[in-house]
Amino acid sequence: MATWNLDKTKHHVLICNGSSCNRVGAEEVTQAIRSEIANQELDPYIHTTRTLCNGRCHDKCVVISYPDGLWYKDMKPHDAPEFVNSLKTNQPFFKKISHTFYGEGFQRTDGTVKGISKQKETVIKASKKL
Ligand code: FES
User: Fold this and answer.
1) Fewer CB atoms inside 10 A, N or C side of the chain?
2) pTM
3) What ligand 1 atom has the least distance to the C-alpha of 26?
4) Is the CB of 56 under 6 A from ligand 1?
5) Which of 97 and 119 is assigned the larger pLDDT?
């Protein structure tokens, strides 16, 4: 196990390695992003973490960056250089953004599938407590 020093970290990148994303190349996306970070000597500034499913399987492969509050969709290994450059320059990688956090919630980019609502499930759970 590793214990990374995060003192200089500016971006935390979550790379979905859930089953849907893995079926379309999440491992290759992960390796490409990590290689690009290493090649640009950005390891002290960009920390990556593999995750399980992020609940947006339609957008596979999903990559999320914080504190930017940006969710990316349809990420491919060849996107890695442009994506890492976007982090380095603090500019969003616009062409792959699915959602942007605005403090009050997330705004979905045009062309991104809305997805199913959690509201029905919440109502059912709440009614069981009554
Ligand atoms: S497996 Fe990646 S969002 Fe579901």
Assistant:
1) N
2) 0.90
3) 2
4) yes
5) 97
